Amino acid sequence: MSVVDQVLALFAQPEAEQWYDEAVTERDHALQTAALAVASGASDELVAASLLHDVGHLIVNDLQPIEEMLRHDAHHEVAGAHFLAEWFGPAVSEPVRWHVAAKRYLCATEPGYLDSLSASSVRSLDVQGGVMTPAQVDEFERTPYRADAVTLRRFDDKAKVGGLDVPRLETYGELLERVAPDRS
Q1: In this structure, is residue 59 part of a structural domain?
Q2: Which of 15, 118, 149, 173 is the most buried (most CB within 10 A)?
Q3: Do the domain assignments include residue 46?
């Protein structure tokens, strides 16, 4: 089984049908996030990162009832980035690593951003470390791939629409093949 087949299989498994939040499943959320990236004209790497940004939930198997998941941070972004870095370059893995920090950053730096978050994103914010302090903001602003992580975060925030018609998982196979430098 190729690397791309393995990655896509994670989103094809029954666990990806569990609810991501109040409106969409984990798979729906991934597909909507990728569709938003495509529609924006994002690079192939950022589209891949958008599709795969929450793969860590499937790897650490923290897909539990929402209320339980919001009590404990399994650091899905770190698990996902570590997993993806084995086969994809940093332009895919690093925005995944930093997409949770990007939410915390935007809450600290963009007036009104916190008010725009879904109920589950607001609840998870505390578990994920809360709004960044000024020192954390300064550190995040020096992070490589910060801009892509923030862009990914904006797609992530909008990708929670129940029943939205978006391209299927298989649509992204060729794109993932193109951005996976090590296909062994």
Answers
A1: yes
A2: 149
A3: yes
Instruction: Give, rounded to a whole angstrom, the gap between the first and last alpha carbons of the chain.
Output: 9
pTM: predicted TM-score of the whole model, two decimal places:
0.91
Q: What is the pLDDT of residues 73-92, one digit of tens each?
A: 667 899 999 999 999 999 99
Q: Report the C-alpha gap between 156 and 29 in whole angstroms.
A: 8
Measured between alpha carbons, how far is 154 from 48 in angstroms, rounded to an integer? 15
Burial bucket for residue 132 (CB in 10 Å: 0-12, 13-18, 19+): buried
- What's the rounded Cα separation, in Å, for the pair 172 and 136? 35
CA atoms of 126 and 183, how far apart (whole Å): 38
| Chain centre distance of CA 168 | 17
Number of domains into which the chain is organized: 1
Q: Is residue 175 part of a domain?
A: yes
Query: Is residue 174 one of the residues assigned to a domain?
Result: yes
Q: Which range marks the domain in which residue 54 is found?
A: 3-179
- State the angle between helix axes of 26-40 and 3-12 in degrees (0 to 180), rounded to the nearest 10: 120
158-184: per-residue pLDDT in tens?
A: 999 999 999 999 999 999 999 997 544
